[in-house]
């Protein structure tokens, strides 16, 4: 009998034994791609985690746990006066968030949003003080002057970067200080209100204020939504937006394949400055009704926060701006009813940003279980 006949042809295989825990190990590897729904799920979970941590901090600060939902959702969004306050705050935030988003898409870190806001408001106020144009056209002329003011203030850092290689983070930040000090020079000097000598400009006339369209903030929100539609078209549907994607991915490769990199960056930065200038116009002609010395404070950080959370997408930036405005209004309610300092609202923003930034790790990486040798 041969050796082959001694071994059955269909010998039963032993069942696979599970590896002991000690023989298993995990490796961290870069994820090639994650679908958009899964990315949205990860980001949503990160935001919820940030809000949960913030809720615990507020409870520790003295806010009743049962009142958190009521304060942030019911009182803020379902009360007509609070909802109008949210929309009132959201309109300039949308403009600033869009301005930051499109600039960041061009890899231009525009941190001069507040300076561009200031010059936008200065341009609009100059038209009002010098009575340029007939009353029927005064408001559109103020908007155009604001657009031009923000655009021209962004032109300098853009040319410095493209021609001389100057870091735009430094140049835009330094120009913020120049703009803010020039604003103080105006409101404490030639543009001081002669009626009461307080450091702000004379009040705008009724035809120089944004009209009340579906409420006091209706026209401002309408302009912000129009800006969002134009930004979405520019980013997603235009040829320049297609070029912008190449520039965002790799400027050197884009230049090598014939994309006009300098022109795309310059045009995008000028558009960013124009949107920030319009944001200053919305605050001056809408919220304040005049040029004030501190109307711009906080908008620069908020714009960067909105662009970061929205991942530079115009529609997402609009949604995030509305959420940030809701957080601001809810924070003011907490200040009034629970004596919570406004720094607590800023802390909540920081927590949400950290959680969202951490979610990028899970989007770009994954754990894979492998057998030990």
Automatic annotation (TrEMBL):
Q: Which cellular component, as a GO term, is one annotated location?
A: plasma membrane
Q: Where in the cell is it found?
A: Cell membrane
Q: What is this protein called?
A: Nucleoside ABC transporter membrane protein
Q: Which UniProt keywords apply?
A: Cell membrane, Membrane, Transmembrane, Transmembrane helix
Q: Which Pfam families match?
A: BPD_transp_2
Its record classes its membrane topology as: Multi-pass membrane protein
Annotated transmembrane regions:
40-63, 83-104, 116-133, 139-160, 172-191, 213-235, 256-282, 294-310, 315-334, 340-363
MF annotations from Gene Ontology? transmembrane transporter activity
Species of provenance: Paracidovorax wautersii
């Amino acid at each position: 009998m041969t050796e082959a006949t001694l071994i059955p042809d269909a010998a039963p295989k032993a069942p696979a034994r599970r590896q002991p825990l000690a023989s298993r190990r995990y490796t961290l590897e870069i994820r090639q791609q994650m679908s958009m729904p899964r990315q949205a799920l990860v980001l949503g979970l990160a935001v919820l985690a940030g809000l949960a941590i913030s809720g615990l901090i507020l409870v520790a600060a003295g806010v009743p746990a049962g009142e958190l939902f009521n304060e942030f959702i019911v009182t803020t969004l379902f009360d007509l006066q609070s909802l109008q306050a949210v929309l009132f705050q959201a309109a300039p935030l949308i403009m600033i968030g869009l301005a930051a988003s499109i600039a960041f898409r061009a890899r231009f870190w525009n941190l001069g949003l507040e300076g561009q806001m200031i010059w936008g408001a200065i341009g609009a106020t100059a038209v009002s003080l010098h009575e340029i144009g007939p009353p029927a056209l005064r408001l559109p002329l103020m908007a155009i002057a604001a657009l031009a003011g923000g655009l021209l203030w962004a032109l300098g850092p853009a040319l410095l970067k493209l021609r001389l290689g100057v870091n735009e983070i430094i140049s835009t930040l330094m120009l913020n200080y120049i703009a803010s000090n020039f604003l103080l020079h105006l409101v404490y000097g030639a543009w001081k209100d002669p009626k009461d000598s307080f450091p702000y400009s004379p009040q705008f006339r009724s035809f120089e204020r944004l009209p009340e369209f579906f409420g006091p903030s209706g026209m401002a929100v309408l302009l912000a939504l129009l800006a969002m539609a134009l930004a979405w078209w520019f980013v997603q549907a235009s040829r320049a937006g297609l070029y912008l994607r190449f520039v965002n991915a790799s400027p050197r490769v884009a230049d090598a394949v014939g994309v006009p990199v300098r022109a795309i960056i310059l045009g995008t930065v000028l558009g960013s400055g124009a949107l920030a200038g319009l944001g200053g116009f919305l605050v001056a002609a809408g919220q304040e009704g005049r040029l004030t010395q501190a109307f711009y404070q906080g908008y620069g950080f908020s714009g960067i926060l909105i662009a970061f959370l929205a991942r530079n997408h115009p529609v997402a930036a609009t949604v995030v701006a509305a959420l940030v405005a809701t957080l601001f209004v809810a924070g003011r309610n907490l200040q009034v009813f629970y004596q919570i300092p406004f720094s607590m609202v800023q802390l909540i923003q920081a927590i949400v940003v950290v959680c969202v930034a951490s979610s990028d790790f899970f989007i770009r990486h994954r754990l894979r279980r492998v057998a030990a040798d």
